[in-house]
């Protein structure tokens, strides 16, 4: 397995895993999620919808690993996650909540890396 093939496997798997993890925290109403969403101005009623989008993105990435024919699904999923986390960064910047902006930044970076690898494969 070449380095590119390994990266194409590992990066989307990491992206899917972190999105499943944060979606689970959203759905469970974890204290840190509730505090952060309130601080940046995201209504609590949005959390389940945002969790669904994260889970859909993770599922799309995983489907893309099954077959090259499903790579467009993975690309669309990664693109959706990029847009989701750009929105998260916008909410942080709008609310001037910068002390924890590294978290949506990390999620965005994994989604961008996944998208780049999928598009170049």
- Give the count of structural domains: 1
**Rounded Rg:** 15 Å
The helix/strand class is mainly alpha
First and last CA, distance = 14 Å
What is the residue-mean pLDDT, rounded to a whole number?
97
- Count of alpha and pi helical runs: 5
Tags for this entry?
mainly alpha, 121 residues, elongated, single chain
Please tell me about this protein's structure.
The protein is an all-alpha fold. It has one domain. It has five helices and no strands. It has helices spanning 3-28, 31-40, 47-66, 71-95, 102-120. Helix 3 runs antiparallel to helix 4 (71-95). The two termini are 14 Å apart. The model has no long low-confidence stretch (mean pLDDT 97).
SSE arrangement:
Blueprint: H1 3-28, H2 31-40, H3 47-66, H4 71-95, H5 102-120
Helix pairs in contact: 1-3, 1-5, 3-4, 4-5
Q: What is the compact description of this entry?
A:
The chain is 83% helix and 0% strand. With 121 residues, it is an all-alpha fold.
């Amino acid at each position: 397995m070449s380095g590119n093939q390994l990266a194409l496997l590992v990066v989307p798997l990491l992206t899917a895993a972190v999105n499943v993890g944060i979606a689970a925290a959203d759905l469970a109403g974890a204290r840190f999620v509730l505090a952060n969403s309130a601080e940046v101005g995201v209504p609590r009623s949005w959390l389940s919808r945002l969790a669904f989008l994260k889970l859909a993105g993770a599922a799309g990435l995983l489907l893309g690993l099954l077959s090259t024919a499903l790579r467009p699904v993975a690309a669309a999923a990664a693109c959706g996650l990029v847009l989701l986390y750009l929105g998260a960064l916008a909410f942080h910047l709008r609310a001037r909540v910068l002390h924890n902006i590294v978290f949506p930044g990390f999620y965005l970076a994994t989604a961008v890396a996944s998208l780049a690898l999928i598009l170049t494969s």
